[in-house]
Design brief:
Layout lengths: L4 H37 L10 H6 L29 H20 L4 H7 L4 H12 L1
Helix pairs in contact: 3-5
């Protein structure tokens, strides 16, 4: 099987190019991570890790288990409260607002009154009216 010399040179140059680009990418990545490591190393705090004896004494036996109940609200002293202005709350509030506007449209409330009562944009209200009229 004869392989032309030009094909071998092309394949060799392609492989060398991929290897060189990989090495350059590794160098850039290490430069970026080293910079972020030096920035975050100043803000690290030392945390006392529990000893091995404490970990062994706190080991849970396989027979002790509890079912997870989602209807109970438990407060954990070590957890932080969620910020009230998070994006999830805004998204939920928007969904509740749109659901309320949809119910008001179905009950026959005029669009102007819905805009006065709820923080709904004209586009959202037009979309709800389009859905209602379909």
């Amino acid at each position: 099987m004869n392989i032309p010399q030009d094909v071998l040179v092309d394949v060799g140059l392609t492989v060398a190019g991929y290897v060189a680009s990989g090495l350059i990418a590794i160098v850039f990545y290490s430069m970026i991570t080293r910079r972020s490591r030096t920035q975050t190393s100043n803000t690290r705090t030392i945390v006392n890790e529990p000893s091995l004896d404490a970990a062994r004494s706190a080991a849970v036996s396989p027979d002790s288990f509890q079912f997870v109940r989602f209807d109970e609200v438990r407060s954990h002293a070590g957890t932080t409260a969620r910020r009230p202005d998070s994006r999830a709350d805004q998204r939920r509030n928007l969904a509740e607002t749109i659901a309320t506007a949809r119910r008001m449209l179905q009950s026959g409330t005029p669009a102007e009154q819905i805009k006065r009562v709820l923080p709904v944009s004209d586009a959202e209200l037009a979309l709800l009216q389009y859905e209602f009229n379909r």
